[in-house]
Write a structure and sequence with these properties.
single chain, alpha+beta, Cytidine Deaminase, domain 2, 2 domains, five-stranded mixed sheet, 5 strands
Length: 191
């Protein structure tokens, strides 16, 4: 990987220096401005950002929509294929609507926010679930800080949405919190 990164940015020494400062998996979450602040030229930072966007787009296009999402690791991988890494710079909230066999029906951004919170429209969530004819739903949002540990507010929102959607026969089966290169699953943690 170091050779590929060195080739991409045009300087093997600079690549090694960058990797000593920032783990490779975290490079995916940085904007070209942050890459420049980390020591890359604007040209090298732009090339790296473009390469990341190209790979992200290719991953999205190769997605087989018929796949079943049966565990949090599969859901996390699915979500990463759907979003632009630039979206992880601020807090965003998405919903993944599923059929009863847990095939994805739709993946929709419901809210965009700042560095530490996002507003969520319950109306948009319900409308999206009905439009997709969803039987199940997975909530997802990111923490720009990189730490995927859920806040008290994350727990309260999950509880509220479960109770709100239950009478409509829509089961909230998980809430995935995305950090830098890792995630937290409410379901995996018994919640």
């Amino acid at each position: 990987m170091k050779t590929a990164l060195g080739t991409l940015i045009g300087n093997e020494d600079k690549a090694l220096e960058l990797l000593n400062k920032i783990p490779l998996r975290n490079l995916l979450f940085l904007s070209k401005h942050e890459l420049h602040e980390a020591g890359l030229s604007y040209q090298a930072a732009s090339r790296l950002e473009s390469a990341i966007n190209l790979v992200t787009t290719a991953m999205k296009e190769s997605l087989e929509i018929t796949e079943k999402l049966l565990c949090s690791k599969e859901v996390y991988s699915f979500i990463l294929k759907q979003i632009d890494y630039s979206e992880l710079q601020t807090e965003n909230f998405w919903i993944l609507n599923l059929d009863v066999k847990q095939h994805p029906l739709s993946f929709i951004k419901i809210g965009e926010g700042g560095m530490s919170e996002t507003r969520v429209s319950i109306r948009k969530i319900v409308k999206s679930a009905f439009a997709a004819n969803a039987a199940r739903m997975i909530l997802a949002h990111n923490h720009p800080s990189g730490n995927p540990e859920p806040s008290d507010m994350d727990h309260k929102l999950t509880d509220y949405l479960r109770e709100t959607l239950k009478p409509m026969d829509i089961e909230v089966i998980d809430h995935i919190v995305i950090g830098h290169g890792r995630y937290y699953s409410f379901a995996d943690n018994g919640y």
